[in-house]
Amino acid sequence: MTIPELFNTALNKPHTDLYERLEFGKENRIFTTGFYAEGLITLLSEKNVIAKIFTNEKISANNSNCSIVQLEGRTIEKIAAFPDNTFNIISFSWPGEWQSIAPLLEEFRRVTKPGGQTAILALKDSTPTPVMAILKKTLEKKYQGRAKFCPPVYPESVKTIRKAFDKAGFVSIRVWEDSFAFDVTEALLKEYSDILLNQLLPPDDKILKKEDLQNAFLNELVSNCKDGVLHITYEYLGGIGYK
After folding, report:
1. Would you give the DSSP letter of residue 82?
2. Structural domains counted in the chain
3. Taking the model in full, what pTM does it have?
4. pLDDT in tens, 16-40
5. Domain holding 56: CATH number?
6. Secondary structure of the chain: what % helix, strand, coil (to 5)?
7. What pLDDT digit, counting tens, does each position of 95-114 carry?
8. Residue span of the structural domain in which 62 resides
9. C-alpha to C-alpha distances, 151 to 93, 104, 124, 133, 164, nearest whole angstrom
10. End-to-end Cα distance, the chain
11. Which of 88, 117, 74, 103 is nearest to 168 (CA)?
């Protein structure tokens, strides 16, 4: 199994939980971006729901009740192209930086139909555990305070999610928190460390260099394994805003 396959398996839980909370009409226009749109299509098939789905994901799931519109480009650019009151449901998962959510939520509300729903899944500020602590330890050993590392900013609690929906003008809001976990074997740690460093390190930093950190970070990850496995837990937050 590869790391992307591990991620997809682990992400089944939070996305299925989110989709089960949504309310579908007889016919739906749905905008989804992030991950796991195929899980949504599977659920719609089970519920015999008719939908037109707009997504940036490559979809292989087959459902005669769903038509797929493939989108390209950044989320804010894609959503800005649609007129007011276009979608019954918007689903957005795992924003890389929480600061970017405010303008997105305002646009999501604009294109959501009255009575429609905008749903979000976001990593919680404490995640992933224990990987961030291991990376910070690696940086301290390597650079001894000469490099400043600013990890992505994630929301701290359900209050953060609720406040963002409220500020964007949603009239009713549901929020929750949960976690998902998976085990990374030592054989997959190199691939996992590569993905994390690509995601977390600033691309143009003059001091922090992926090639300088790769071996040291990998060694720290291996040293934290128990019986050849590193156990990873991601805490996350969910929210649904109703227009």
Report:
1. S
2. 1
3. 0.87
4. 999 999 999 988 999 998 777 888 8
5. 3.40.50.150
6. 40, 30, 30
7. 877 777 878 899 999 999 99
8. 3-242
9. 19, 21, 13, 11, 21
10. 41
11. 103
